[in-house]
Write a structure and sequence with these properties.
Elements: H1 14-35, H2 53-72, E1 81-82, E2 88-92, E3 95-102, E4 106-112, E5 114-121, E6 129-130, E7 133-134, E8 143-151, E9 154-159, E10 182-184, E11 188-190, E12 198-199, E13 209-210, E14 263-265, E15 272-274, E16 304-310
Antiparallel strand pairs: 1-4, 2-3, 3-16, 4-9, 5-8, 5-16, 6-7, 9-10, 10-11, 12-13, 14-15
Length: 312
Amino acid sequence: MPFPDLPPERIPGSPGHLNDHQLIDQALDYIQQSAYRDDPNFPPLPDVPVLGQSGHVTAHDRILAVLQYVKDHPSLGAPAVISNNPTGTYAEGGHNYAYFTFTASGTLGVTSAGFADLLIVGGGGSGGGGGTIKGSGGGAGGMLELFDVYLPAGSLDVRVGAGGVYRDIGTVGVVGANGEASVLGGLYFALGGGGGGSFSREVGGGGYEIPGLTGGSGGGGSGRAGGRGGGTPYQGYPGVNAVRGGGGGAGGSGSGSTGGPGKHSAITGANVTYAKGGDGGSGDNGAPNTGNGGGSHRNGGSGLVVVRVKTN
Protein backbone atom coordinates (compact mmCIF):
# COMPACT_ATOMS: atom_id res chain seq x y z
CA MET A 1 0.00 0.00 0.00
CA PRO A 2 1.53 3.39 -1.01
CA PHE A 3 1.87 6.25 1.44
CA PRO A 4 -1.27 8.46 1.23
CA ASP A 5 -1.18 11.91 -0.34
CA LEU A 6 -0.18 14.66 2.07
CA PRO A 7 -2.19 17.90 2.25
CA PRO A 8 -1.25 20.63 -0.24
CA GLU A 9 -0.30 24.07 0.98
CA ARG A 10 -2.88 25.50 3.36
CA ILE A 11 -6.33 26.01 1.78
CA PRO A 12 -8.29 28.89 3.35
CA GLY A 13 -11.81 28.20 4.53
CA SER A 14 -13.60 25.36 6.27
CA PRO A 15 -13.97 22.90 3.34
CA GLY A 16 -10.26 23.05 2.55
CA HIS A 17 -9.32 22.74 6.20
CA LEU A 18 -11.48 19.65 6.64
CA ASN A 19 -9.87 18.14 3.57
CA ASP A 20 -6.45 18.78 5.14
CA HIS A 21 -7.52 16.91 8.27
CA GLN A 22 -8.79 13.96 6.27
CA LEU A 23 -5.47 13.64 4.44
CA ILE A 24 -3.52 13.98 7.69
CA ASP A 25 -5.62 11.27 9.34
CA GLN A 26 -5.11 8.92 6.38
CA ALA A 27 -1.35 9.43 6.71
CA LEU A 28 -1.44 8.75 10.49
CA ASP A 29 -3.52 5.63 9.92
CA TYR A 30 -0.95 4.43 7.36
CA ILE A 31 1.87 4.94 9.88
CA GLN A 32 -0.01 2.99 12.54
CA GLN A 33 -0.88 0.07 10.24
CA SER A 34 2.58 -0.10 8.64
CA ALA A 35 4.81 0.13 11.69
CA TYR A 36 2.82 0.12 14.93
CA ARG A 37 0.09 -2.45 14.27
CA ASP A 38 1.16 -4.62 17.21
CA ASP A 39 1.89 -1.72 19.57
CA PRO A 40 -0.84 -1.51 22.25
CA ASN A 41 0.45 1.88 23.45
CA PHE A 42 0.00 3.72 20.15
CA PRO A 43 -2.18 6.80 20.81
CA PRO A 44 -5.74 6.98 19.43
CA LEU A 45 -6.14 8.60 16.03
CA PRO A 46 -8.23 11.79 15.64
CA ASP A 47 -11.83 11.61 14.42
CA VAL A 48 -12.75 13.00 11.00
CA PRO A 49 -14.29 15.18 9.88
CA VAL A 50 -13.64 17.78 12.57
CA LEU A 51 -16.37 20.35 13.17
CA GLY A 52 -16.51 23.00 15.86
CA GLN A 53 -13.89 24.47 18.13
CA SER A 54 -13.99 21.68 20.75
CA GLY A 55 -13.61 18.88 18.21
CA HIS A 56 -10.93 20.82 16.39
CA VAL A 57 -8.82 21.23 19.52
CA THR A 58 -9.23 17.52 20.38
CA ALA A 59 -8.13 16.53 16.87
CA HIS A 60 -5.02 18.71 17.08
CA ASP A 61 -4.19 17.29 20.51
CA ARG A 62 -4.39 13.76 19.12
CA ILE A 63 -2.30 14.62 16.07
CA LEU A 64 0.41 16.08 18.32
CA ALA A 65 0.25 13.03 20.62
CA VAL A 66 0.75 10.66 17.67
CA LEU A 67 3.64 12.69 16.26
CA GLN A 68 5.31 12.86 19.68
CA TYR A 69 4.92 9.09 20.10
CA VAL A 70 6.47 8.39 16.69
CA LYS A 71 9.32 10.75 17.55
CA ASP A 72 9.95 8.97 20.88
CA HIS A 73 9.45 5.46 19.44
CA PRO A 74 10.88 5.51 15.90
CA SER A 75 9.79 2.37 14.11
CA LEU A 76 8.67 3.14 10.57
CA GLY A 77 11.44 1.62 8.47
CA ALA A 78 13.83 1.82 11.41
CA PRO A 79 15.91 -1.09 12.68
CA ALA A 80 14.63 -3.06 15.64
CA VAL A 81 16.25 -2.09 18.94
CA ILE A 82 17.57 -5.16 20.77
CA SER A 83 18.50 -5.28 24.46
CA ASN A 84 20.79 -8.35 24.29
CA ASN A 85 24.53 -7.77 24.27
CA PRO A 86 25.72 -8.11 20.67
CA THR A 87 27.95 -11.01 19.74
CA GLY A 88 29.88 -8.67 17.46
CA THR A 89 29.80 -5.53 15.33
CA TYR A 90 31.22 -4.54 11.95
CA ALA A 91 30.96 -1.90 9.24
CA GLU A 92 30.08 -2.58 5.61
CA GLY A 93 28.70 -0.62 2.69
CA GLY A 94 28.48 2.62 4.65
CA HIS A 95 26.48 1.06 7.51
CA ASN A 96 27.37 -0.23 10.96
CA TYR A 97 25.87 -3.55 12.05
CA ALA A 98 25.44 -5.44 15.29
CA TYR A 99 24.66 -9.14 15.25
CA PHE A 100 23.34 -11.52 17.88
CA THR A 101 24.23 -15.21 17.52
CA PHE A 102 22.34 -17.93 19.37
CA THR A 103 24.18 -21.25 19.55
CA ALA A 104 21.69 -22.51 22.13
CA SER A 105 18.06 -21.70 22.87
CA GLY A 106 17.37 -18.40 24.64
CA THR A 107 15.43 -15.12 24.41
CA LEU A 108 15.78 -12.12 22.10
CA GLY A 109 14.69 -8.87 23.77
CA VAL A 110 13.22 -6.40 21.27
CA THR A 111 12.71 -3.10 23.10
CA SER A 112 11.48 -1.24 20.03
CA ALA A 113 9.81 -2.93 17.06
CA GLY A 114 11.51 -2.59 13.71
CA PHE A 115 13.39 -4.42 11.00
CA ALA A 116 16.26 -6.91 11.08
CA ASP A 117 18.10 -9.49 8.99
CA LEU A 118 17.92 -13.16 10.00
CA LEU A 119 19.85 -16.38 9.49
CA ILE A 120 18.13 -19.51 10.81
CA VAL A 121 19.61 -23.00 10.37
CA GLY A 122 17.93 -26.16 11.59
CA GLY A 123 19.75 -29.13 13.10
CA GLY A 124 21.22 -31.62 10.61
CA GLY A 125 19.91 -35.16 10.29
CA SER A 126 22.04 -38.13 11.32
CA GLY A 127 23.31 -40.75 8.89
CA GLY A 128 21.81 -44.20 8.55
CA GLY A 129 23.31 -47.66 8.92
CA GLY A 130 24.00 -50.08 11.74
CA GLY A 131 26.85 -52.37 12.82
CA THR A 132 28.94 -53.03 9.71
CA ILE A 133 26.17 -51.73 7.45
CA LYS A 134 27.18 -48.44 5.89
CA GLY A 135 24.15 -46.21 5.39
CA SER A 136 23.41 -42.96 3.60
CA GLY A 137 24.26 -39.45 4.76
CA GLY A 138 21.90 -37.27 6.74
CA GLY A 139 20.32 -34.21 5.20
CA ALA A 140 21.41 -30.73 6.25
CA GLY A 141 19.15 -28.62 8.39
CA GLY A 142 17.06 -26.12 6.47
CA MET A 143 18.75 -22.75 5.93
CA LEU A 144 16.64 -19.59 5.87
CA GLU A 145 18.22 -16.17 5.33
CA LEU A 146 15.89 -13.16 5.28
CA PHE A 147 16.50 -9.43 5.02
CA ASP A 148 14.48 -6.49 6.35
CA VAL A 149 11.91 -8.57 8.20
CA TYR A 150 9.70 -7.05 10.89
CA LEU A 151 10.26 -7.96 14.54
CA PRO A 152 7.56 -6.95 17.05
CA ALA A 153 8.50 -5.53 20.42
CA GLY A 154 8.72 -8.00 23.29
CA SER A 155 10.64 -11.08 24.40
CA LEU A 156 10.97 -13.48 21.48
CA ASP A 157 11.76 -17.11 22.24
CA VAL A 158 14.70 -18.50 20.28
CA ARG A 159 14.97 -22.24 19.79
CA VAL A 160 18.15 -23.71 18.32
CA GLY A 161 17.50 -27.15 16.84
CA ALA A 162 19.62 -30.09 17.96
CA GLY A 163 21.20 -32.38 15.39
CA GLY A 164 19.77 -35.84 14.84
CA VAL A 165 21.45 -38.52 17.00
CA TYR A 166 22.60 -41.73 15.31
CA ARG A 167 21.54 -44.90 17.10
CA ASP A 168 23.22 -48.23 16.41
CA ILE A 169 21.15 -51.30 17.25
CA GLY A 170 23.73 -53.87 16.20
CA THR A 171 23.67 -55.81 12.95
CA VAL A 172 20.38 -54.32 11.73
CA GLY A 173 20.50 -51.17 9.64
CA VAL A 174 18.23 -48.30 10.62
CA VAL A 175 17.28 -44.96 9.15
CA GLY A 176 18.95 -41.88 10.63
CA ALA A 177 17.14 -39.43 12.91
CA ASN A 178 15.82 -36.07 11.76
CA GLY A 179 17.33 -32.91 13.23
CA GLU A 180 15.18 -30.43 15.13
CA ALA A 181 13.81 -27.18 13.74
CA SER A 182 15.27 -23.80 14.75
CA VAL A 183 12.65 -21.12 15.44
CA LEU A 184 12.60 -17.38 16.21
CA GLY A 185 9.60 -16.09 18.12
CA GLY A 186 7.20 -18.54 16.50
CA LEU A 187 7.45 -16.33 13.39
CA TYR A 188 10.38 -17.65 11.38
CA PHE A 189 11.76 -21.20 11.28
CA ALA A 190 14.07 -23.62 9.49
CA LEU A 191 13.29 -27.35 9.58
CA GLY A 192 15.68 -30.04 10.76
CA GLY A 193 17.44 -32.21 8.19
CA GLY A 194 16.16 -35.66 7.23
CA GLY A 195 17.78 -38.85 8.50
CA GLY A 196 19.84 -40.89 6.03
CA GLY A 197 18.53 -44.14 4.55
CA SER A 198 19.98 -47.63 5.02
CA PHE A 199 19.56 -51.37 4.41
CA SER A 200 18.19 -53.86 6.91
CA ARG A 201 21.09 -56.18 6.01
CA GLU A 202 24.32 -55.93 4.06
CA VAL A 203 23.81 -55.19 0.37
CA GLY A 204 23.11 -58.50 -1.40
CA GLY A 205 22.30 -60.25 1.89
CA GLY A 206 18.57 -60.54 1.32
CA GLY A 207 17.55 -57.48 3.35
CA TYR A 208 15.24 -54.65 2.42
CA GLU A 209 15.95 -51.01 1.69
CA ILE A 210 15.07 -48.19 4.11
CA PRO A 211 14.55 -44.80 2.41
CA GLY A 212 15.91 -41.54 3.75
CA LEU A 213 13.63 -39.07 5.50
CA THR A 214 12.31 -35.71 4.37
CA GLY A 215 13.46 -32.57 6.18
CA GLY A 216 14.96 -29.13 5.64
CA SER A 217 17.26 -31.04 3.28
CA GLY A 218 16.52 -34.71 2.63
CA GLY A 219 18.44 -37.71 3.86
CA GLY A 220 20.39 -39.85 1.39
CA GLY A 221 18.55 -42.66 -0.36
CA SER A 222 18.77 -46.42 -0.15
CA GLY A 223 19.18 -46.96 -3.88
CA ARG A 224 15.63 -47.59 -5.04
CA ALA A 225 13.21 -45.23 -6.73
CA GLY A 226 11.79 -42.83 -4.17
CA GLY A 227 14.39 -43.91 -1.65
CA ARG A 228 15.83 -40.47 -0.99
CA GLY A 229 14.35 -38.00 1.44
CA GLY A 230 12.80 -34.82 0.05
CA GLY A 231 13.91 -31.27 0.86
CA THR A 232 11.86 -28.21 1.79
CA PRO A 233 11.53 -25.47 -0.88
CA TYR A 234 13.69 -22.39 -0.21
CA GLN A 235 15.46 -24.19 2.65
CA GLY A 236 17.21 -27.25 1.21
CA TYR A 237 17.45 -29.99 -1.41
CA PRO A 238 16.61 -33.71 -1.60
CA GLY A 239 19.17 -36.37 -0.85
CA VAL A 240 20.88 -38.49 -3.52
CA ASN A 241 18.93 -41.57 -4.59
CA ALA A 242 21.87 -44.00 -4.65
CA VAL A 243 23.30 -46.84 -2.61
CA ARG A 244 24.77 -45.07 0.42
CA GLY A 245 23.68 -41.77 -1.14
CA GLY A 246 24.73 -38.39 0.17
CA GLY A 247 22.32 -36.24 2.13
CA GLY A 248 20.93 -33.08 0.58
CA GLY A 249 22.43 -29.69 1.39
CA ALA A 250 21.16 -26.11 1.42
CA GLY A 251 23.04 -25.47 -1.82
CA GLY A 252 22.18 -28.63 -3.78
CA SER A 253 21.56 -32.36 -3.77
CA GLY A 254 25.12 -33.68 -4.11
CA SER A 255 26.17 -36.66 -6.22
CA GLY A 256 26.69 -40.35 -5.48
CA SER A 257 27.84 -40.77 -1.90
CA THR A 258 28.92 -37.13 -1.62
CA GLY A 259 26.62 -34.91 0.42
CA GLY A 260 25.11 -31.81 -1.09
CA PRO A 261 26.94 -28.48 -0.79
CA GLY A 262 26.07 -25.92 1.84
CA LYS A 263 25.37 -22.21 1.34
CA HIS A 264 27.41 -19.17 2.28
CA SER A 265 26.25 -16.36 4.54
CA ALA A 266 28.10 -13.18 5.49
CA ILE A 267 25.53 -11.98 8.04
CA THR A 268 28.23 -11.84 10.76
CA GLY A 269 30.70 -9.98 8.50
CA ALA A 270 32.59 -13.18 7.65
CA ASN A 271 31.70 -15.53 4.80
CA VAL A 272 30.72 -18.84 6.45
CA THR A 273 29.28 -22.02 4.91
CA TYR A 274 26.33 -23.70 6.64
CA ALA A 275 24.03 -26.68 6.06
CA LYS A 276 26.12 -29.20 4.09
CA GLY A 277 24.73 -32.68 3.48
CA GLY A 278 26.37 -35.70 5.12
CA ASP A 279 28.36 -38.23 3.06
CA GLY A 280 27.04 -41.73 2.56
CA GLY A 281 29.13 -44.81 3.43
CA SER A 282 31.56 -42.77 5.57
CA GLY A 283 31.82 -39.22 6.79
CA ASP A 284 31.95 -37.29 10.03
CA ASN A 285 29.65 -35.89 12.66
CA GLY A 286 28.08 -32.59 11.67
CA ALA A 287 29.97 -29.77 13.39
CA PRO A 288 28.07 -27.91 16.13
CA ASN A 289 26.01 -24.89 15.01
CA THR A 290 26.50 -25.54 11.30
CA GLY A 291 23.35 -27.56 10.57
CA ASN A 292 25.52 -30.05 8.63
CA GLY A 293 24.14 -33.54 8.10
CA GLY A 294 25.97 -36.46 9.66
CA GLY A 295 27.80 -39.06 7.61
CA SER A 296 27.02 -42.77 7.79
CA HIS A 297 26.81 -43.79 11.48
CA ARG A 298 27.31 -40.15 12.49
CA ASN A 299 25.30 -37.43 14.28
CA GLY A 300 23.96 -34.30 12.65
CA GLY A 301 25.25 -30.87 13.67
CA SER A 302 23.11 -28.49 15.72
CA GLY A 303 21.65 -25.38 14.12
CA LEU A 304 21.86 -21.71 15.05
CA VAL A 305 20.00 -18.40 14.88
CA VAL A 306 21.59 -15.06 13.98
CA VAL A 307 19.84 -11.67 14.12
CA ARG A 308 21.50 -8.58 12.58
CA VAL A 309 20.43 -4.93 12.85
CA LYS A 310 21.80 -1.65 11.52
CA THR A 311 23.09 0.68 14.19
CA ASN A 312 23.39 3.84 12.09
